[in-house]
Amino acid sequence: MKPTRHATYAAVCALALTACVTPATGTDSYRGKASASIEAAISEVETTRIAVDALLDDRIMVPYADETITAAESTLGAISAAFGSVQPPDDPQADELRETVTALVDAAGEAVTDARIASRRPQDADLRDALTMLDDVARELDAAEAKLR
Amino acid sequence: MRRLFAVALGILTAIGGFVDIGDMVTNALVGSRFGLSLVWVVVTGVIGICVFAEMSGRVAAISGRPTFDLVRERLGPRVGFANLVASMAVTLLTFIAEIGGVALALELASSVNYLLWIPLAGFAVWLVLWRVKFSLMENVFGLLGLSLIVFAVAVWQLGPDWSTLWNDASRPSVPASEDAPTYFYYAVALFGAAMTPYEVFFFSSGGVEERWGPRDLTTMRTNVLVGFPLGGVLSVAIAASTTLVFLPVGVQVDTLGQVGLPVAVSLGKMGLAVALIGFFAATFGAACETGLSVGYSISQYFGWQWGKYVRPREAARFHVVLLLATITGIAVLLTTVDPIKVTEYSVVFSAIALPLTYFPILVVANDPDYMGEKVNGRVANALGSVYLVIVLAAALAAIPLMILTKAGQ
To answer: How much of chain B is in helix, strand and coil states, percent to nearest 5?
Structure first.
């Protein structure tokens, strides 16, 4: 392979790799992405809360609730992966923010997973436990969002 | 009595057939993020579709030929081809989204993954396009689509503060939590969903399928001027339901399952079951309409025999196009592309294609060689011209807004 071809190949590979992650151009931009991730997580947690509430009140069919909660679970996984792929700026505050947001989104994911498991079981107690977890996570997400504004 | 029944049936099917996956998802999403502050766009879009559907229906009733059959003849092959490519590409995208919508509705009812439903949904759509009579297809899915009235009942049952809702709808403004480009991006998307090109393709070609003549003009106008606005009311009801349930808690709609949740909250299982029937009927009916529209547009451009009013053997190339479009739709969806994302993009690309779709209609409806005494009057021309400016503005703004807002994020 000629040197120019090597260089072109390396450039194409570098471009392809950088395209996989969204760079944050500064702490403000990174905070913006963090805030967007928290907002998206709140949306999924609240969707799950509404579905679980409806299940407890016998206002929704189990397959419908299951699909809705499963979709929320998948979206939370995607949110976590997307935020995790963002390269934080070289700033200790950004590292701290990264840890906080990642932990919160992961906690939201776990709460929604518990809700999905509970929604497929006949016991109301499991659903109530899941709802309590969702309430806690929702409160933490709301607090984090308020802080980031 | 028989005529009255035909008018009533036409209105009901127009209402039920007005809402498709694009209307459902876009209105639900907009309601959850912007409240009712974008209702003015739905109103503008409904008036616009009434103006152009009336024109294309009149062309079909007077000339006995659908509008787009005349476009190439009247405006030449180049304009005809541009019209064909733009409108058909968007209609095919919408067709794919509708088949995906059918599969998603079945997934919600059965808990079986939508990817497993896609081949079956596509096959069922193709079978209906091939075997079922046009009027039966239109009436059954149009009437079943009326189930979406359950959203209006859900809104009423939720007991909203009507004055606040009216205030939001009548005094549009950008909500504090959103920025102006995102607000206008969704305004363009809603406009594209309301005025999607296939509606006039289907309406004018359907007129020929049902052998409209000058005597049917009143029935056609009643269907358009009563049925479409009432269909618009269904769209607003969907937006209002998500405004009431989702906006206060920060839920942003991105799945079909979320669209139906407010009905479950308000009316319980029975209401949700009716909503599911509405989802299925609206998406299946629209899949048939968009599939046929793809076949109509290609066949009419190339001058092939088209339509369901002749036997499939007599319109073989038309039916091959329908089959290929269905196979394409299934293949695209089986790549696991998100049907809701396809829907969101299809409504924005609809807005981009609007000028190429609606400009030729205005030209043909003004041509006395085709229309005789029934050419556009002053009111139709004034409204048509104003709407051409609006659709041009929406088409020009769509791509820059999409880039600026990262597709509305």
So the answer is: 85, 0, 15
Of B250, B254, B272, the CB nearest to A61: B272
pLDDT value, residue B83: 83
Q: Tell me which residue of B315, B356, B101, B94 sits closest to B205, measured CA to CA.
A: B315
Q: How far is CA B211 from CA B12, B60, B67, B137, B304, in A?
A: 20, 9, 14, 16, 18
Which chain B residues have a beta carbon less than 8 Å from that of A57?
A: 268
Would you list the domain boundaries of chain B? 2-404
Domain that holds residue A58: 25-148
B198 and B91 Cβ atoms separated by less than 8 Å: yes
CB contacts < 8 A (A, B): 71
**Cβ within 8 Å of residue B381, ≥6 positions away:** B362, B366
Residue A118 in domain: yes
In-domain check, residue A32? yes
CB of B257 within 8 Å of a chain A CB? The answer is yes
pTM of the model: 0.90
Residue A136 domain flag: yes
Q: Is B196 helix (H, G, I), strand (E, B) or coil?
A: coil
* Chain A residues inside the 8 Å CB shell of B408: none
Q: ipTM of this predicted complex?
A: 0.88
pLDDT tens-digit map of B266-307: 999 999 999 999 999 999 999 999 999 999 999 988 889 998
CA-based nearest distance A90→chain B, Å = 25
Kindly list the distances between the CA atom of residue B51 and the CA atoms of A74, A143, B209, B334, B376, in Å, as whole numbers in the listed order.
43, 49, 21, 38, 11
Residues 101 through 130 of chain B touching chain A, CB cutoff 8 Å? 107-111
- pLDDT tens-digit readout, A58-86: 999 999 999 999 999 999 999 999 999 99
**What is the number of structural domains in chain A?**
1
Q: Tell me whether residue A67 is in a domain.
A: yes
* Cβ distance of B246 and A46 shorter than 8 Å: yes
| Contact between A59 and B250 using a beta-carbon 8 Å cutoff | no
Nearest CB to A63 within list B110, B245, B258: B110
CA-based nearest residue to B94, from B275, B329, B307? B329
Correct CATH for B2-404 of 3.40.50.720, 1.20.1740.10, 3.90.770.10, 3.40.50.1970: 1.20.1740.10
Cα–Cα distance between B271 and B309 in angstroms, integer?
Answer: 37
